[in-house]
Design goal:
This protein is mainly α. Helices cover 34% and strands 8% of the residues. The protein folds into two domains: 1-58, Aspartate Aminotransferase, domain 1; 70-146, no CATH class.
Length: 146
């Protein structure tokens, strides 16, 4: 019996390594990584620049809370603000936190504009946006009452 919660219907596949957009299984079979680690590996696997950055970071500080100034985070936030529509960034620890932040940011945006009746969230029926109550409520398919 596995010591892992049976939350997912797991495939028997197991991967030994990744290269770019490909995953290589224990027996050497290559697969296109359409999951992207469920979005955390959107840049692919084993890119030399990313490997060097991770190795350099591992020799420094592994993690500190967002309650401290993190120079690398500041630099990345500045770069993102310069090259996107956003004025500021919110870095999260998970996709679930990102979805919750998006819901709260959207609702606050309209509340601050005085449009308090604009609070509903649009989501795909049967989708997955995380395991928080807000994300689950947005994903649940409710029967029509009319």
């Amino acid at each position: 019996m596995s010591a892992i919660y049976p939350t997912y219907a797991r495939s028997e596949l197991s991967f030994e390594r990744g290269e770019g957009a490909r995953l290589i299984s224990q027996d050497g079979t290559e697969y296109l990584d359409f999951h992207g680690g469920i979005a955390v590996n959107a840049l692919g696997h084993h890119h030399p620049h990313m490997v060097a950055a991770l190795k350099a970071a591992a020799d420094k500080v592994w993690h500190t809370a967002n309650t401290f100034v993190i120079p690398e985070q500041e630099r990345l936030g500045q770069r993102l603000a310069e090259h996107t529509f956003a004025d500021a960034c919110f870095f999260t620890n998970s996709g679930t936190e990102a979805i919750e932040c998006a819901i709260k940011t959207a609702r606050h945006y309209f509340w601050a504009k005085g449009e308090k009746d604009r609070y509903e969230v649009i989501a795909f029926s049967g989708s997955f946006h995380g395991r928080t109550l807000g994300a689950i409520a947005a994903s649940v398919r409710l029967p029509r009452t009319t």
